[in-house]
Amino acid sequence: MSLQSLIEQLRDFDSALLANTIGYIDPTPAHEFYMAGSIQSVTTGLGPTVGVAVTCEIDTSTPGAASEWEPFYESLEKMEAIAEPVVWVVKTVGARPEHECVLGDGMAKMLFAAGCVGVVTDGGVRDVAGMKAIPFAAYARGTTIHHCAIRVRNVNEPVEVGGIVVRPGDVIHGSSEGVIKIPAGCLAELPQRAVKMRAFEHAAHIELRRTDLKIAEKRRRVGKLLVEYGFALPEQVAL
To answer: Looking at the whole model, is its pTM more than 0.90?
Structure first.
C-alpha cells in the first residue's frame, strides 16, 4: 500500500485512538511519539491532519534581527517535490518565546499551494479565521498577535517540538486534542488495527459504564475483549 493511501486512511481516525493503538502494536515508548498538551489545535473544526514532516527552526521574536526568508522558500520547494501531503513542523528559537508568531494566513496560503496541509509548532500563530478558510490546520501553543523579523533556518534537520524529536519524513497526525508522530514500524498496519481498536473501545466502554458489574468482572470482560480483538494473548490477561 502506498504512503499516500495510508495517509488518506489515517485521516479517518483521531490522534488519541491512534496513540492507543500504537501502544498495543509497536514497541516505541509512548513518551517518544506524543507531543505535550501545550501543542493544541487552534483551527478547530477542520478534522484530523496527516502528512509527512518538513522541518525547520524559526526566530520571530528577537528584537533588531534581520529577516532571513531564503530558507523558507527552500522549504516550499522541498514540499513541492513531495508527492504526499506535508506537515510543516517548526521549532521556535527566538529570544522571547512567548512572543513567537510563526505564521498567519498569508504564509499559510503559500504553504498550502506547495502541498502543505498544516503546521505544528511550539510557537504561536495568528489569522486563525483566514487559515480555516483555506483550509490550513495549525497546532500551536496558542495565538500571538504579531512578530519581529522572521528568520528561518536549519531546514529539514531534526527538531524537538512538544517534547519529542521529529525528523524529516516522519508521519505526523494531529486532531482536536493534540499531535502524535507515527512510528515507522507500525505505519503499514496502523489503519486496519485502528479499526479494531475503535471496535474494542466501543465494546469495552459498554462494560465499563455498567453499574451491575463488580470491578473484578469488568476487568475480566475487558481482558477477554482485548484477546478477542487481537490486542493481547490469553496468558497476558486475567480471564
So the answer is: yes
